[in-house]
User: What shape does this take?
Amino acid sequence: MPTSANHAYKTLLQILVDNLRAKGITDKRVLEAIRQVPRHAFMDERYIGFAYQDDAFPIAAGQTISQPYTVAFQTQLLDIQKDDKVLEIGTGSGYQCAVLLEITPSVFSIERQKTLYDSAAKRLKELGYSPHLRYGDGHEGWPEEAPFDKILITAAAHEIPPRLLEQLKTGGKLVMPVGGAYTQKMTLVEKISNSESIFSEHGGFVFVPLLKGKV
Ligand code: SAH
Assistant: This one.
């Protein structure tokens, strides 16, 4: 990329980060991670000019790239540490995955749509990221790699898939939008023992649904 274009998007990233800080994102690691990821590389061509706007946009296969505020909010709730092993459900564009990878190298992400899985894998590799990606149904989690310190679900359902809770470490955290099609409550689960978890709700959001099976 020519230096002037490079400079322009770095400036836009700084403005985006300032905007997120003004909206209440305080975790320095999260803000720094957002500052590092060229969001335009994850956008559908039609919306590339809006990449540094704090909004969700359509990507392929009827899905969306999450709003930066939502990405920052979920990441902040999880309090990701630099050596955490993290599982993401819903790779989508790969943007949230890249933000996680700016904080910890140990990121596992599952996508049920083959076209999105393929394009995210290619894009993340080209940008120099090394995630562990799987094409599959996130309801099953990734048992061979469990347990995880943190689990982040970027699609909504009425309840937290039990297999994901099973794959969370004791002392670990999971975040997921829980609710119906039109609005969900961002729900944080802190697993305090094998049989006990603390649930808390953190405001209303709108996500695409967590669906069964692979396509
Ligand atoms: N994290 C993404 C947001 C993508 S939207 C980003 O940063 O761009 C949610 C994604 O979840 C969609 O790509 C959708 O296909 C995927 N999804 C829905 N149900 C799923 C399931 N059961 N397993 C894995 N992925 C799923």
Summary: The first strand starts at residue 57 and ends at 58. Residues 47 and 165 are 36 Å apart (CA to CA). The chain has a mean pLDDT of 96.
